[in-house]
Amino acid sequence: MNIHMRIKRYDPERGDGKPYWSEFTVEADPLDRLLDALNTVKWTMDGTLTYRRSCAHGVCGSDAMRVNGRNRLACKVLVRDVGTRVTIEPMLGYPVIKDLVVDMDPFMEKYKSIKPYLINYDAEPAAERLQSPEDRARYDEGTKCILCGACTGSCPSIWGNPDWIGPASIVNAHRFIFDSRDQATAERLQILGQPNGVWRCRTIFNCTDACPRGIHVTDLIEQVKRAIVYNDTRDS
């Protein structure tokens, strides 16, 4: 089948510095991935087309982009599911570096701000820090995050306030807040209780729809909100 691709472009070295559109018609198998079609364009039609890609298996999260108005991983979207015409844009809410490549540095700084690592002040054990299957299940869903940024780029709260910490950071905080081995829950809840923390979430559910890993992002955010309220109540 032939697929008509309309791709939003941006080249900082162009004289006017404005975004523009390029259009290509690519022959593709219905079971090809959208990433295959993009590769065909880059390798055979326009070598200047710029986008990120790496594993091509939906694990690295590098090829997140806006496909027909929804954030998706190009390596997971089948050609048959986008039809014969597809519009591809960089994700909203991020500065665009070139074409479909966005600047992920602010996103990663917010991620690092929630201390995304196990904090435990006890003496180092001789073996693993064990926990029950039930304790593991409490935070298991958040461990699926691949930091693609699709959830954050789909959120109107980020579009309106780029300083907001964003859903991906909250999901990764959830992973440690509810880990029975971690001892920095209060510290993370304090970080997320700030003006640009969890309360900026307006429960729109765009993040849940955008997640390529099927994480119930909005639900995890609500769990963190309840944890803050419970912690404040207990301390008062």
Automatic annotation (TrEMBL):
Its cofactor is [2Fe-2S] cluster; [4Fe-4S] cluster; [3Fe-4S] cluster. It catalyses: a quinone + succinate = fumarate + a quinol. Residues 1-92 form the 2Fe-2S ferredoxin-type domain. SUPFAM superfamilies: 2Fe-2S ferredoxin-like, alpha-helical ferredoxin. Residues 135-167 form the 4Fe-4S ferredoxin-type domain. Its EC number is 1.3.5.1. GO terms for molecular function: 2 iron, 2 sulfur cluster binding; 3 iron, 4 sulfur cluster binding; 4 iron, 4 sulfur cluster binding; electron transfer activity; metal ion binding; succinate dehydrogenase (quinone) activity. Keywords: 2Fe-2S, 3Fe-4S, 4Fe-4S, Iron, Iron-sulfur, Metal-binding, Oxidoreductase, Tricarboxylic acid cycle. GO terms for biological process: respiratory electron transport chain; tricarboxylic acid cycle. Binds 1 [2Fe-2S] cluster. Binds 1 [4Fe-4S] cluster. It is an enzyme of class 1 (oxidoreductase). Pathway: Carbohydrate metabolism; tricarboxylic acid cycle. Belongs to the succinate dehydrogenase/fumarate reductase iron-sulfur protein family. PANTHER family: SUCCINATE DEHYDROGENASE [UBIQUINONE] IRON-SULFUR SUBUNIT, MITOCHONDRIAL, SUCCINATE DEHYDROGENASE IRON-SULFUR PROTEIN. This is Succinate dehydrogenase iron-sulfur subunit. The lineage of its organism: Bacteria, Bacillati, Chloroflexota, Ktedonobacteria, Ktedonobacterales.
